[in-house]
Amino acid sequence: MGVMDRLAMAGAQLIAFALPPRCPGCGVVTADDHHFCLACWSKLDFLGPPACAACAEPFEQDAGPEARCGACLADPPAYDAMAAAVAYGEIARRVALRLKYGGRPGLAETIARQLERHASGAADMLVAPVPLHRWRIWRRGYNQSALIARALVRRTGGTLALDLLERRKATPVLRGLGPAARVKAVRGAFILSPRWKELVKGRAVLLIDDVYTTGATANACAKALRRAGASQVRLLCWARVVRGRVDDVDFPDPR
Ligand SMILES: [Zn+2]
Ligand SMILES: [Zn+2]
């Protein structure tokens, strides 16, 4: 190796070592890894009570921890409960897209840190991602929800079950589809992988996804897990579309 090569290599190492932490939302230099800058942090709309006990749709007024929204009363979801860290908006969307397409797998750790407070009991649960069809994985290289699930289990404990569900149907792009069309598109799309057939019986499952739009995908997954004998299915997402709070008309395509 020549002197110039050595210098170039030392330089590259120095740059890698000295690479400053950056805001997951906008990329400005921050004090610590996985910390948002003040501007992005203040734009994030953190979700919590009061909200629907099933789908986490925020309530204007606290109606108690068991209260459900009208939609969940009329048509109860197949999952028992759902939580999301933030409402879907400009910064939440940017983080989700950079994890999904931007080659920034480290953002799974950023998201896992925000999910941790919603993940009580995870240590005793099977933690599984909403699966991608294998064609999508081949094209993209990874399932973003699997990265989040892995990062979360590192923090909370629990049984990581990356292949708990399989997607046997390549569903069309859901963007632009209304709620009813979405339900139809994912019907029968998920099955339990045979390997977990006995192991899932009587177990509580924490299902991980990046973005929750209408709940059609999560419901289809929860139904498959219920049929397989799971005792409980909880859903945990990075961002949830909340009516009236979407400041960006470009709706997400969760898959
Ligand atoms: Zn920022
Ligand atoms: Zn609800």
Automatic annotation (TrEMBL):
Gene Ontology molecular function: glycosyltransferase activity
Ranges for domain Phosphoribosyltransferase: 195-245
Record keywords: Glycosyltransferase, Transferase
Top-level division of the source organism's lineage: Bacteria
Record-linked CDD domains: PRTases_typeI
All copies of domain Double zinc ribbon, residue ranges: 15-73
One Pfam family named in its UniProt record: Pribosyltran
Family of this protein: Belongs to the ComF/GntX family.
Name assigned to this protein: Amidophosphoribosyltransferase
Species in which this protein is naturally found: Sphingomonas oleivorans
Phylogenetic lineage: Bacteria, Pseudomonadati, Pseudomonadota, Alphaproteobacteria, Sphingomonadales
